[in-house]
Amino acid sequence: MPLTPFHLGPAFFFGELFEKRVNLISLLLGSIIIDVRAAYCLFSGCRPLHGPLHTLMGATLIALLFAWMVFSQRQWLQKVTERSRIMQAYSFMSILMGALIGTWSHVLLDSFLYADIIPFWPLTGNPLLGIAESGIIYLICLLTFLPATGMYFYRYSKRS
After folding, report:
1. Is residue 35 a part of any domain in this protein?
2. Residue 79 maps to a domain
């Protein structure tokens, strides 16, 4: 995606759908952390732009590392989510599921758009490339953000 925040729409939507089973913070941050290397490459000129983190294997490794980091900070993060009136589980499994869904969804969404992504590495090629046009992928990202926002504010108002 040309703008990493597009990934927040589907992540936020899944997070709201599975609010008490999947950790929202690990899901949201996991959906954008994959672009750390791509952002570095964009500014430094390294190629390919989408490298090993844009594979399901790379995303899984990042998700495991990231889940451990979020789990180690769960007490502080729980205070943040409680102030935001977000009901969250902070078990390692809910954090790991959030991180996996976030990172994998990022890789899969980008796989429809970019030729330099090899999502199923070590298998070669990208069988998802071109299946959906970029406008459709962006629209999905935007349209999933809207109901997620509605769900969040509905729950927020009920928990006042």
Report:
1. yes
2. yes
The count of structural domains within the chain is: 1
Residue 156 lies inside a defined structural domain of this protein? no
Would you write out the chain's pLDDT as a tens digit for each of its 160 residues? 455 678 999 999 998 888 888 999 899 999 999 998 888 888 898 888 898 999 999 999 999 999 999 999 999 998 888 887 777 889 999 999 999 999 999 999 999 999 999 999 999 999 999 999 999 999 999 999 999 999 988 887 887 6
Convert 31-47 into a string of H (helix), E (strand) and C (coil): HHHCCHHHHHHHHHCCC
The DSSP call for residue 124 is -
Alpha-helical runs (H) found in the chain: 8-17, 24-33, 36-44, 56-72, 74-83, 92-111, 134-158
Which amino acid appears at position 103 of this protein?
Answer: T
The residue segments making up the domain with residue 106 are 4-144
Q: Look at residue 155 and tell me if it is in a domain.
A: no
